[in-house]
């Protein structure tokens, strides 16, 4: 990812305008459950896919689910997924991802968001539905921004330089997220607009969407880690 794109889209200022694109940096760590050893890691960057036909548009989160459907996992594999998002999932994406997690109990998901997507009614219920489906939700801090800068950004060997108010904004957004998650979910409205359906893994069922970066990294011989940093 270009360093200017990263700063523009991931800057955690809730008052920003014009950031209609969602960027998703992901890590997929595969483990062999039988031997409790890591098998490898996949990293990449996705963003919204626009199309003149509204029914063929795809948010970054759903592009990732399509990408996941192409992985050939056998029953003994467990998958730990980490997302770094410029915006938290919108209500309909949250619903689709929640359904996916409930249908794939061998997949765990951690989400670090730079900002909260608050522009559609029901976003709170969407976040709570992700929590109830087993996803771990957090707000990005300087630690996560610096990690993304090193791993996903074409940074020209420049060090990450936090912008003004980064930590203060992160704390304020995190407090808002925790306030939302403390409430119990009562009802989640399923939107009627078209979105692809995702269930259990079905290799080859969906084509892989275009990505800005993607690579395969063999994992070092060590046990599962609880945090990528």
TrEMBL record:
SUPFAM superfamilies: Cytidine deaminase-like (SSF53927). InterPro entries: APOBEC/CMP_deaminase_Zn-bd, APOBEC_Cyt_Deaminase, CMP_dCMP_dom, Cytidine_deaminase-like. Residues 18-130 form the CMP/dCMP-type deaminase domain. Transmembrane segments: none annotated. CDD domains: cytidine_deaminase. Signal peptide: none annotated. PROSITE patterns: CYT_DCMP_DEAMINASES_1 (PS00903), CYT_DCMP_DEAMINASES_2 (PS51747). It catalyses: a 2'-deoxycytidine in single-stranded DNA + H2O + H(+) = a 2'-deoxyuridine in single-stranded DNA + NH4(+). Its EC number is 3.5.4.38. This is DNA dC->dU-editing enzyme APOBEC-3G. It comes from Echinops telfairi.
């Amino acid at each position: 990812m270009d360093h200017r794109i990263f700063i523009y889209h991931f800057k955690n200022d809730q008052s920003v305008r014009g950031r209609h694109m969602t960027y998703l940096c992901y890590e997929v760590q595969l483990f062999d459950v039988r031997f409790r050893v890591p098998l490898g890691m996949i990293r990449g960057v996705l963003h919204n896919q626009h199309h003149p036909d509204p029914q063929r548009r795809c948010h970054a989160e759903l592009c990732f689910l399509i990408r996941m459907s192409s992985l050939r996992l056998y029953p003994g594999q467990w998958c730990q997924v980490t997302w770094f998002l410029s915006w938290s999932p919108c209500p309909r994406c949250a619903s689709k991802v929640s359904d996916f997690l409930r249908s794939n109990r061998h997949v765990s998901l951690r989400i670090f968001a730079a900002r909260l997507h608050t522009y559609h009614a029901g976003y709170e219920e969407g976040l709570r539905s992700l929590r109830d489906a087993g996803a771990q939700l957090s707000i990005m801090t300087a630690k996560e921004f610096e990690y993304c800068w090193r791993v996903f950004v074409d940074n020209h060997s420049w060090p990450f330089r936090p912008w003004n108010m980064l930590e203060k904004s992160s704390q304020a957004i995190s407090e808002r997220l925790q306030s939302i998650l403390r409430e119990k979910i009562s009802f989640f409205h399923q939107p009627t607009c078209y979105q692809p359906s995702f269930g259990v893994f079905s290799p080859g069922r969906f084509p892989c969407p275009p990505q800005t970066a993607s690579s395969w990294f063999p994992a070092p011989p060590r046990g599962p880690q609880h945090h990528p940093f």
